[in-house]
Amino acid sequence: MRSKMSWTSTIPRSQAWLTVAVAAMLLSTQHSVSASATGGLASDHRTKSVKVKTRRLGGRHGAHCGQGWQDTYSHLHAAILESEASRQRLAVVNLHRNGLGDRLTAAVTVFYYALLSGRAFQINWRGASTEATLAAVMEKANVDWEAARGDVAGGGGTQYVDWWLIDGHHPPDAMDFKVFGGANLSDMWPDARTVVFDINTGAVDKLFYNPYHRQQLFTWGLRPETAVGCALNYLFRPRRETLEVVRESYEALRNPDALKIGIQVRMGDAWLQHKPNGVCDRKIDYDDLGRWFRCASKVEQEYKVEGMPVHWYVVSDCPALRYKAVEKYGLKVLLPSRELVTEHVTFSTGNSTKDVLAMRTAFAEQWLLGMTDFQVITEESSFGRLAALRSLRFRSVYTMRSPAAMAERGRNVSWECTRSNFDNFEEVAINHPWVKVL
Ligand SMILES: *[C@@H]1O[C@H](CO)[C@@H](O)[C@H](O)[C@H]1NC(C)=O
Ligand SMILES: *[C@@H]1O[C@H](CO)[C@@H](O)[C@H](O)[C@H]1NC(C)=O
Ligand SMILES: *[C@@H]1O[C@H](CO)[C@@H](O)[C@H](O)[C@H]1NC(C)=O
């Protein structure tokens, strides 16, 4: 019990009474906590009974993520949601714009703000249609992150934080980085019941230099390199219906004995939104798209052991590429078991069933990309970089860039994905002309 108590004392609480509540929960040995709601509250605020499933080892990645903070925060989060609205302290991230990678990047950033300031983390998701909710696609693995309507309405007690930069460029002296890099997050807006963020960058890496939080994060067992993956694995798990969309690939990628190489070829938002679905006829040519596949071949050559099954998992907004890859490279390329709906998560098809399927496809593919051993990804996309970070692998990423960006690094079309040519953590997470992941 002693060690649990010391974990408790390292997560700040916005209100002293929660110390007692959380300590009491941690002292009891039960694996689920439920408290009855107190009546008489405005119905659009949430005060409810929340089941907390404690997973003692912090899930399958426990060894990389530390143990202890997960359970402590799950209990704190549940205790906040169960308390009276006026005593709650919430941190909400608005996820209304941008694609999946950028949205999850913002979610992870605000999650760390919530964790370090002792607030309940909430997601206010706006999808392509009202049915396309986040909860329709992902399970609330350890905390109930779905924001209630009343929790994001403006008015007294709500602090709105607009860190949305129009061109997505967050210079190192931008306010988000200043706060995350050097402020005591518990002292930011302490009286606001709800802090609502609109943000289009990640600022997690900065926290590991923040004098108020650095020690705490390291003590918990988190590292800059694992922070994104650990948060994603803690917050989300794909729903059964979501994995169903990619069932055969999922089964193949679960094989611990196979060599699994992920290939993410991203054409871009413009392609996804303006071209009719499914008629991308790009070729796997030598100078351009062939580079992703040659890279995968080289990685395979570097790491394959005789007799080992090899799977290539291809994710692309040009769905036909998978079939072209099979023609060229054979059946190690995993094919989808059904027609996937490849659309941008902000783009409404006018058919809500299809919108939900598109969202399930995007989440499922990103999750599966994060199950691979190596990731050959596209530079101009946070989708692949986030999946690579979720894999909690290191020396696993090879980024395909524009010829100009390759030349800046002294590379040309014959540059090879050898063991030593991987992209390091800074390349994957931080050095990026557009939205940073960390
Ligand atoms: C941060 O602020 C909180 C609330 O004011 C305080 O309890 C805590 O000690 C501060 N942390 C550090 C490291 O100064
Ligand atoms: C809506 O989309 C679903 C899934 O793609 C499809 O089965 C259904 O036929 C579509 N409905 C209409 C009215 O087009
Ligand atoms: C690519 O670069 C390598 C070494 O930097 C060089 O030897 C090779 O000739 C270049 N190839 C092309 C096609 O420019």
From TrEMBL:
BP GO terms, sorted: protein N-linked glycosylation
Compositional bias ranges of the Basic residues kind: 48-63
A GO molecular function held by the record: alpha-(1->6)-fucosyltransferase activity
Keyword match Signal: yes
Region (Disordered): 37-63
Signal peptide (residue range): 1-35
Keyword annotations of the record: Signal
The UniProt record lists the keyword Metal-binding: no
Protein name: Uncharacterized protein
Organism for this UniProt entry: Coccomyxa subellipsoidea (strain C-169)
